[in-house]
Amino acid sequence: MANTAQHLDKHQPAPAVLAPERPLDPGAIRETVSALIAQGELALAIEMTDLATFIHPNNESVLALSALVAEVAQDWFKAHALLTRLRHLQGASITSETYRHEIRVLRCMGSNTQAIGLAQIALQKFPTDNVLQQEHEELLSLFNTELGAVG
What are the Cα distances from residue 63, in Å, to 26, 81, 86? Predict the structure, then answer.
């Protein structure tokens, strides 16, 4: 009977790829993406961050990294979507850095009205942040220039 069992086991196909016990952790993903960017492999870095956001959809560091890679790739809509998700995930513990990046992305998209609104919200939480103050002033200046051109 033992020989029959051994004989059957030999004919079982082996799995082609063994699944990892646990997916890559955010730290390993960050290191890999950093190395890919340093090597000029932006397309691979994008694929890696896409996979990372699939594996870790609610991980703040993965979302931030993915948004940065999207910014480097000048994929403004993707960066905006990721930063918006990150902002909502961070909630009350949002950082000024998250606001800064999303405001910058909105400006790159040409959404200055949306950017100025977000800058005003950001300044309520971080009134002494020099970068946010500067963004807000530049946006006000742009807004006033646009109004002057219309009027």
Answer: 10, 10, 6
Q: Nearest to residue 106, comparing CAs of 132, 136, 126, 77?
A: 77
Q: What secondary structure letter does DSSP report for 14? A: P
Buried b (16+ CB within 10 A) or exposed e, 72-81: eeebbebbbb
State the residue for tokens 């020989």. 3
Is residue 8, in this structure, part of any structural domain at all? no
The verdict on 106 and 143 lying in the same domain is yes
Where does the pLDDT of residue 25 fall: very low under 50, low under 70, confident under 90, or very high at 90 and above?
Answer: confident
Spell out the residues 6+ positions from residue 74 whose beta carbon is closer than 8 angstroms to its own. Answer: 108
Residue 129, number of CB atoms within 10 A of its CB = 17
Residue 52's alpha-carbon distances to 59, 77, 118, 140, in angstroms, are 9, 18, 27, 37
Q: What is the pLDDT of residue 148?
A: 61
Nearest to 34 by CA among 61, 65, 57: 65
Domain membership of residue 145 (yes or no) is yes
pTM: 0.78
Rg for the chain, CA atoms, rounded: 23
Domain ranges, residue 71: 27-78
